[in-house]
Specification:
With 159 residues, the protein is of the alpha+beta class. The protein is globular and about 40 Å long. The protein has a single domain, classed as Glutaredoxin (3-Layer(aba) Sandwich), CATH 3.40.30. Strands 2-1-3-4 form a four-stranded mixed beta sheet, sandwiched between helices. The longest helix has 13 residues. Strand 3 and strand 4 form a beta hairpin. The chain has five helices and four strands; from the N terminus they run βαβαββααα.
């Protein structure tokens, strides 16, 4: 993942325009573990801060390419907040902390150096399908949550 300036995707003609006025989580829509995390966020995000994009959507794939990630493997979620992308353990900790108390307590894990946190994150990410399984089709939000997803379910490619 290459560090890019904030809002760099605005200048990338391959990334479709999207609303980025809220933090956005780009996640693997066929991973039960990742979709489970999205459900946790939906349940605990009392302020409705986060928006979601399945990685399998055209926008999700474009963002993975933009950040130099494999747009078919999705071994990291992307958190885009204030135009800046966060990956791996740093992105996950930031997502959780954004849910408010008691989730902010995860910030204590920041004392662990990223050089130790990220390999653990990568180990889980590489084995996520073995740990939790894989959906036969991409994650589709409930009608109550559909407005929090930036890619419509009809535009998500089959998994």
């Amino acid at each position: 993942m290459r560090p890019l300036p904030a809002y760099s995707y605005h200048n990338d003609p391959t990334v479709p325009a999207f609303a980025d006025d809220h933090p956005i989580i780009v996640f693997d829509g066929e991973c039960i573990f990742c979709s489970g995390w999205v459900n946790v966020v939906l349940r605990h995000d009392r302020q409705g801060r986060y928006r979601f994009i399945p990685a399998q959507s055209p926008l999700g794939e474009a963002l993975y390419r933009h950040y130099g990630l494999n747009n078919r493997d999705y071994e990291t979620n992307i958190l885009i907040e204030d135009g800046t992308a966060f990956f791996k353990s740093g992105g996950s900790l930031r997502m959780a902390a954004g849910l408010g108390f008691p989730w902010t307590l995860v910030n204590i894990l920041r004392v662990i150096p990223r050089a130790l946190r990220d390999p653990l994150y990568e180990l889980v990410a590489r084995n996520r399908y073995r740990i939790a399984g894989r959906r036969k089709s991409c994650f589709v939000p409930t009608p109550d949550h559909r407005g929090r997803f930036l890619a419509s379910a009809s535009r998500i490619r089959a998994c």
